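Dear Dr. H.,

I hope your travels went smoothly. While you were away I took the liberty of generating a structure for the chain from your last submission, since the lab meeting agenda had it listed for discussion. I wanted you to have the full record in hand beforehand rather than looking at slides cold. The sequence, exactly as received, is reproduced here:
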Amino acid sequence: MQSRPPIPPWHFAIILITTLVTRVAFLASPAGRIGESDEAVFGLMALQIASLKEFPLYCWEAQYAGAPNSYAAAVIFWFFGPGFVQLRTPMVLAALASSALYYCILGRLFTQKEALVGTLFFVFSPFLVLYHTSAGDGVYGETLLGIALIIWVSWQLADREMQGHLLTGWLLLLGFLCGFFFYVLFLVFPAIVAFALPSLRSAPSSLRRKTAAFATGGLIGISPLLLHNVLLDPGGTALRAAGRSLAVGRADLPLSLQDLIWKIINQKMIYLWHWLLSAPRLFGYYVLPEGFDDAFLQMAGVALIALLIAFGVIMFTRRRAEIRNNRLLRQFVLLGIFLVLFQWAANLDRPRHLLPLIFLIPVACFAVTSMLPRLRTSVSIGLLLLALAQLLGWLPRLQIAPLDPYPIARILRANNIQEFYGSYDTVYPLVFSTQEQIVGAPLLLPQNGILVDRRPEYTQRVLQSSRPAVLFRTDESALEQQFLAFLETHDVRFRSVGTESIKIYFDFSRRIFVESSTSTGTRFLLNTS
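The corresponding predicted structure, in token form, is as follows:
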């Protein structure tokens, strides 16, 4: 095992304090105190868990996004009551662990000062990373923690001369981490291939024995996914993953096999072309602070792509003796390669899907300049300045909060409204803020809206209600005008009340129904009985 100097305690103190202060500051900000609809769903799941009514394994009506955060939040709800801050609190602990592990990982590769600089860059990450890793929606904060754990445990296996039960225990642990975090979110897969499998291959034991230990741990870790697909939603996760990856849905099943194959190939080529065109902008989000326009994002993204390509070329063309820790650095190159291939395989195209890039950037910067000491100092200064710029970029974004459901809930209660129609972005934060005392049906589809009914029981209750309200956000004005025209055409009298962010229509003289589909959009209907 390679000896390394002891870690200065003040390094850990700086990392843990800055991580804690920044994440608590986020939770205290307008953006941190209020969550979006996806988070509200996980909060509602935590309410069910806390009351011992239901024990979900995945996000409701979904076959991805595991529920561990809802279980952790349920414990916090039991002591402190429900709320978005309480829902997001477990992610603070995940961020602390991720930062500490990342420092240890960088310290294995570079000097302690460089490890500190690289970790501070990770702590003061782009707001995109801060927001998604602080959100209580069950995926991204856990994914970064999972990747850090997989890397650290994989390297412990490579560093330590283990035999017998000790080796078996570490292999079980590594398999469990891979399986569990794959269940939480598939985005951990590139780290499994780049780090876990090579360490399994090099472990000092027979192939059959070490594979059995790793596989046993993996089966234990992934058991929630298997249970969900065997008992609760047979094959649901596999079918959804296949549909997403192949860009086909149920409407395509009647096609002949030849036409289906041709459509898959055509859709994948179109996706790949669009992904390549958008890649500079996607990568640019991980370099520039918030507020820069598309042209600057693309230039920054091109620079980052060039850096990562140079990193890969240097690591695989130089002899191992020329670059310290060349073997370990090559694993980070593989992480980048498999991350991109995973995007292509799964048809992913959002900046947040590239989240593991935040681990790669400091590693690539220091590795590319590994033989140029003066330039490495400049890189350290540059990363610190970029971290400071990201921090300044946070400030305006911290003031931008999603729709605050609590004042709206007070208005609904004051008017004795217990059921309502709304859009996806409106319904679940309101239901969560009222702890299911007021429920909504997400059947309003504004422009670019989505039709996702996470809780069909709520929708049925609204459809059966004798006096449901209809809620429109200010950015749903086109659909609101369509609704008002419908009311005028059918001479329906009503009352309305509103705030700066939302308008509420209720006490209709005739019973109102809403129907929606992705093909026809939203339709307003009257009671025909």
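Two observations you may find useful: The mean pLDDT is 90. The beta strands are 419-421, 439-441, 469-473, 495-498, 502-506, 512-517, 521-526.

With kind regards,
E. W.
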